Amino acid sequence: MMGDKDETRNLIIAVALSMLVIVGWYALFPPPEPEPQPAGQVTAGGAGAPAGVDAAAPGTAGGPVVPLDRSAALSRAERIEIETPALSGSIAVRGGRVDDLDLSKYKVSLEPDAATVTLLNPTRSPNPYFVVYGWLPAVGTAAGPLPGPTTDWLVEEGERLTPESPVTLAWDNGEGLIFRRRIAVDEDYMFTMTQSVENTTEAEVALAPYAYIARRGEPDTQGFFILHEGALGVFDGELSELDYDDLLEMPVDPLGRESGRLQARQVEQNGWLGFTDKYWMTVLAPAAGQPFSAVYRVQNGAGRPEFRTEMRLPAVSVAPGTRGEVSTRLFAGAKEVTTISAYEEELKIDKFVDSVDWGWFYFLTKPFFWMLHWFSSVIGNMGWSIILLTLCVKAVLFPLAYKSYVSMSKMKALQPQMEKLKERCGDDKQRMQKEMMELYKREKVNPASGCLPILFQIPIFFALYKVLFVTIEMRHAPFILWIRDLSAPDPSTWMTLFGVFPWDIPAFLSIFSIGVFPILMGITMWLQQKLNPAPTDPTQQMIFAWMPWVFMFMLGQFAVGLVIYWTANNTITIIQQYVIMRSQGVQVDLLGNIKQSFKKKRKQTQE
Question: What is the pTM (predicted TM-score) of this model?
Answer without folding.
Answer: 0.82
